[in-house]
Design goal:
By secondary structure, the protein is an alpha+beta fold. The chain is 34% helix and 18% strand. α2 packs across α6 and α9 packs antiparallel against α10. The chain binds fe (ii) ion.
Length: 297
Amino acid sequence: MEIIKNSKRFIKDCYAIAKYKTPAIRPLSINNKVRKKIEEFNENGFLKLECDRFLDVAKYLDDAYFKKIEEHNNVIVESDFQNPNRRFSIKELKKNEYVAGGMQISAYISLLDEKLSSLLFDDEIHSILYGYYKRQHYFRNQPRIMKVDYKGVNKINNGNMHVDHLHQVSIILNVSDISMNDTHTEYVPGSHKRSFLRHGIQMPVEKSMELVKSYSNRVHFTGKKGTLYIFDTSGFHCGNYQQGNSRKIMHLNFTTGHHMTSVYDDPDDIKTYIKNSNWPDYINNSLNKAIKFKPDF
Ligand SMILES: [Fe+2]
């Protein structure tokens, strides 16, 4: 019975992905450095990248976004997204799990902010994603910035190991220096290679917590401001909450076209943005796809 149940679930999950007929991979000029990174990503399920251009973006995010919101004393203000600048929208933070986890800021920001484009449309990152997926990839939703200041009495650790959607790859950029004593993401290298047929693609947290016991390695997504991690979220991961310094990050999600969510950028803005930009096709496609998703409000 279990095998029939798992097979049905597998087919259902695969359908969600397969129904998006995205273009097959085209030859990209992938140099040796990038090819090695793709191999490493395939092997471990994550990559750590450090370079000055990411640090510049982290500094910009801190000054232009975090400090601006912190001026409001981290209080949730009406969405600024309706302003002419439309640079960020504040996510509802009243959910108990956010408050308990010390979430102070969680805001979607614009794909159209040119000062972010050196990271959002970075050639190396997109070549790695394209090479990893072996097909077209898309931004699943907008970039999100988050600040967590966990002051809970109990250390929450390994208690929330889970997996996300199949074929979702996420990026975390550290906007503050993050050490082992600060809240950070923990990842189980190699666990993205588990059998989807035997264990399901999306599994309950209880099952994840049981299965993860067979893996001994843990990687901690720590590092200086500007450190960037790319990881396959079908591998086990969790938040490791610590009472250290505030953790500030930018978070990006990619899929091959499935599980897309609303994008708040104005479709006309995006059209103009594409017209005026010189991005390769695979980036233009991603933004074009975003046009189809209307704002919620
Ligand atoms: Fe997750």
